[in-house]
Amino acid sequence: MYKPSLCVIVGCLTLLGLAGCDQATLKTADPYDGLPQAILNWHADVEKTAACSGKPVAGGNGCQAFEVGCKVEQPISSSEAGVTARILAAMSWNAWNTARGDFDPASGGAVFTKKDGKWSRRDLSTPVNLTTCATS
Questions:
Q1: Which of 33, 39, 62, 82 suits a disulfide with 116, CB 3.0-4.6 Å?
Q2: Rounded Cα–Cα distance for residues 125 and 123 (Å)
């Protein structure tokens, strides 16, 4: 006679528990759902800028070594209907300097706001500390 192991029993109970959740509950469980894609879109937009248009070699990238330095939650006021999350993020990269023939460090910050389930981005014109996400 088959006797299921404790792992099989726990696994089945977990699946049964999840089966009781509707899809809307599962989708709203993570307020940051979609943020990684919004950051990837920001990265792609930076690559399209004039600062990244110079290329070190044919087919090379004008900007490289993108790295998100920090992400920090920002406050949401009660008057902002539909807003469920706001994140300030800072990213660094290296941009090709055609005059010098070398890469220069570059960075930028952006505020991502999730409203009605969709992320929007506002690029910052002020410097952002890449470690603490403090703005100047």
A1: 82
A2: 7
